[in-house]
């Protein structure tokens, strides 16, 4: 019997036992769906996070008061809550004493403000960034119109601002050049000296920044806050050396005692991506465990439907063996049927999984992805399930006595 004939026979068997076939296909589809949906969603999320984390810049690391992932075991908060702020003076010490760095940016943040221009007003969800001139390249913010911050802006505490692309779109008419215009924030007027190129979105827009000189930021919002220090090394080769220098300078100015852990946290693109992968590892393992249980149930269903098929087709098997069919050909036929049933359910699960995973990605404003590796894994798993659970029914069919099979009613 040819492969096409085997597939045709399998489909006839499925049609003849609709309810049992539906339940079997459903169990396979659920197992594959759970893998593909979760892995597709995680793949889209990981691509977005890696793209978002790259905003730190190449060969760039950041220093802040607390770890980026503020989770931890018992006593975490008790151990870290008394850390002193990273002050602007300490940041300037890093700038002065660190060698081999291309840029060292200092920044401070506050959130939840509205910006107005004439009679146009934004929602109160704007992020205010106080920056030094090197803060823009370490954040990978590129100037679209106008100019960047200068040292004289900091020295003279000028009330100037660089607007993110979303703010320009919200406040001004299309194709309007906002350079030189004045906007208001928290009762203070700022002159627009530049705009930023769009960055895109990950869990919300990254283009709603209101960037002002850090000294102006301190004058308006106060110095009683911890700053971030962003350092970009000149090359990958001296990245670790620059990082070691920054650690040494900060430990000295913050008076960390020998043998004690750092009173600050450092992270880079690679460390954040590693943290994300560690967090999602449990999710991946849990998903695979659920899928394995579902596929086990599906395999039992396949074995059941194939055993019923052997019983119903006993005379057919007897006729085939009587006219010369070998045991190998009978085994191949029934294994092919088991694999077809399994793969058919798997394809349904893959399609539904891709749809569900990418619907979630679109809902989170993340670019959809197609995880070819996991699709191939799902199909391979279905083939394996079909082979494993179809072997016994195929063996039983191949070992039927032709005379007894022909007499079967």
Order of helices and strands: HHEHHEEEEHEHEHEEEHEHEHHHHH
Output mean pLDDT. Answer: 83
What's the total helix number? 14
Secondary structure: helix percent: 55-70%
Shape: elongated
Helix-and-strand structural type = alpha+beta
Measure the end-to-end span.
Answer: 23 Å
Task: Kindly provide the radius of gyration, computed on alpha-carbon positions and rounded to a whole number of angstroms.
Answer: 32 Å
| Count of DSSP strands | 12
- Characterize the biggest β-sheet: 12 strands, mixed
Portion in beta strands: 15-25%
Low-confidence stretches are none
Number of domains: 2
Written description of the protein model:
The protein is α+β, with helices and mostly antiparallel strands. The protein folds into 2 domains: 3-51 and 274-407, no CATH class; 84-263, no CATH class. It is 56% helix and 16% strand. Strands 1, 2, 3, 4, 5, 6, 7, 8, 9, 10, 11 and 12 form a 12-stranded mixed β-sheet that branches. Strand 3 and strand 4 form a beta hairpin. Helix 4 (88-97) crosses helix 9 (239-253) and helix 10 runs parallel beside helix 13. The chain is elongated and about 105 Å long.
Q: What's the structural blueprint in terms of helices and strands?
A:
Elements: H1 3-16, H2 18-53, E1 60-64, H3 76-80, H4 88-97, E2 101-113, E3 115-117, E4 120-121, E5 126-131, H5 135-138, E6 143-146, H6 151-155, E7 160-163, H7 165-171, E8 182-185, E9 188-196, E10 209-213, H8 214-221, E11 228-233, H9 239-253, E12 265-268, H10 269-312, H11 314-322, H12 327-363, H13 372-398, H14 402-407
Parallel strand pairs: 5-10, 7-9
Antiparallel strand pairs: 1-11, 1-12, 2-5, 2-11, 3-4, 3-8, 6-9, 7-10, 8-9
